[in-house]
Amino acid sequence: MACLAMLAGLTQLGRRVQHFRTRACLTARESVGQVTGLPGRHLDSWLMPQPVCRRLFARAAAGVELSVIEGTLGTPVAGASGRWCEHPGDLRPIAETLDLPILAVVSCRGNDSGSFHLPAIPEQADAVLLDEVDDPALLPRFRRMIHLAVGLPVVGAIETLPGLRTAVENQPADRMLSADMIDDLAGAFLKHANLAALDELARRRPFPAPAVRRDLAGRGRRRFRVAYAQDEAFGGYFPDTIESLEALGADLVEFSPLRDGALPEGVGLVMIGCGLPDNHAEELASNHSMIAALGEHVCRGRRIYSEGGGTAYLGRRMIINGRRYPGAGILPFDAELVDAPPPPAPVTRQLLHDSWLGPKGTVVRGYKSGRWRLIAGLERFECPACFGALSAEGDWFFHHHAVGSLLHLHLGALPEVVAAFAGPHRPSLKRPTARGLADRDADRNRGFDRGDDREPSDS
Q1: Whether residue 39 has a cis bond before it, omega within 30° of 0
Q2: Among the ranges given (279-293, 362-376, 424-438), the one the predictor scored with the smallest mean pLDDT
Q3: What per-residue string of b and e applies to 309-333 under the rule 16 or more CB within 10 Å gives b?
Q4: Are the beta carbons of 406 and 374 closer than 8 angstroms?
Q5: For residue 129, what are the β-bridge partners?
Q6: In this predicted model, what pLDDT tens digit does every residue of 74-128 receive, in sequence order?
Q7: Which residues of 79-116 are buried (b: 16+ CB within 10 A; e: fewer)?
Q8: Measuring CA to CA, which residue among 31, 41, 37 is closest to residue 176?
Q9: Where are the beta strands (DSSP E) in 295-446?
Q10: SS3 for 198?
Q11: Minimal CA–CA distance to 130: which of 144, 149, 109, 147?
Q12: pTM of the model
């Protein structure tokens, strides 16, 4: 609440402020973007080596006046709401990597003129932002006592404001904050803000020098076209993922699985990110033209990449509150919506087979969505050599060059994987059968190769 109010207040003053979360997992709620006008970014010490963390921060922060990385100095917890990914992660390793000053948000709840005590202030703090101030008349006393006790400046204070806090905390994840709520948040911060102290804190450390990225050098010369789903049902993408693809030479174009009847022309890769397809299941199932276009895309040997809700849509069926809705029928499972989903969890996965994402044994880290359960199995007339699981845990599947999982991958932290998005289709996901190997050997004996690994044609 205090951080959101500070972002709203600074934005209302006309400042460009970039917010970073310290857990790189996607959530449906994006109040930060509504308040600042800039999409929220992510820095995650579990996912990102230090050079990657510095590079992503420097790139995103270069075009703004102030950056705020929100985290905790204590043990990260889910909090009462259970929305684990929306609560701060561990700030300390990121602060050390970027050499950041630390602004401690300190609760003053329970203090009044008859019962006054100095709240606990972390030793690592460089300044203080007071929160949940019941009596604004005590602010001069708080500032004086904090200065005398620990010698730190107070850059501002947020009053208790129970009505506003309740309204913000209870705002449904799929609804926008109202303009009045954003104005009230801004006013709550600006009422007691010490902007000079905040600016001095931000200027205290030099801007981190970004690491030189050599792994993608020269790749931008090769252009390729990527269509990514963007509508009311889908839209969960990390900004760094989009920028990484652009750096590789991608021509990015949006499409809507809800409304469009065909994929954009000349697309080699389709991305369907996470979202809320369960809120639009009937509309998605009735768009037969888009389902046929996705199937044709796969049959031509082209690639699809999906995560979370996008993966659920690509299955045979979506099971929502006991009711079955047809999916795109590309991946070999039914996706069942979980009644009381667990929060996203950090996981490590190893690819069981060669794929265009990487060879067998490739290890990736990400956050697994708990909203869907995948019920895998072959149906009649389906070829087991064309389908399969890419992870032993049953949350990552393929069909030819279509790959879908319940994992949210921050591709900015996976340069080898994101580079594969611009690469050729090889190696093939199709596992050779005994008949296929015999045919290939016979062809070679006659003096030519079948070319199973060549680029597929559109015929």
Answers
A1: no
A2: 424-438
A3: bbbbbbbbbbbbeeeebbbbbbbbb
A4: yes
A5: 105, 156
A6: 766 554 444 545 567 889 999 999 999 999 999 988 776 666 677 889 889 999 9
A7: eeeeebbbbbbbbebbbebbebebbbbbebeebeeeee
A8: 31
A9: 303-307, 317-320, 323-326, 333-337, 345-350, 363-368, 372-376, 387-389, 396-399, 402-405, 407-408
A10: helix
A11: 109
A12: 0.79
Instruction: Measure the CA–CA gap between 83 and 346, rounded to whole angstroms.
Output: 14
Which tokens sit at 245?
Answer: 């693809």
Backbone angles phi, psi at 404, to 5 degrees: -140, 145
Residue closest to 305 by CA, chosen among 207, 398, 381, 174: 398
Q: Distance (Å, rounded) from C-alpha 358 to C-alpha 356?
A: 5
CA angle 220, 224, 230 (to 5 degrees): 110
Judge contact between 152 and 121, C-beta under 8 A. yes
Question: Cβ(157)–Cβ(192) under 8 Å?
Answer: yes
Alpha carbon separation from 218 to 104, 214, 223, 411 (Å, rounded): 43, 9, 12, 19
Q: Do the beta carbons of residue 397 and residue 389 sit within 8 Å? A: yes
pLDDT digits (tens, 9 = 90+) for 35-54: 999 988 999 998 888 988 99
Domains assigned to the chain: 2-202 (3.40.50), 224-445 (3.40.50.880)
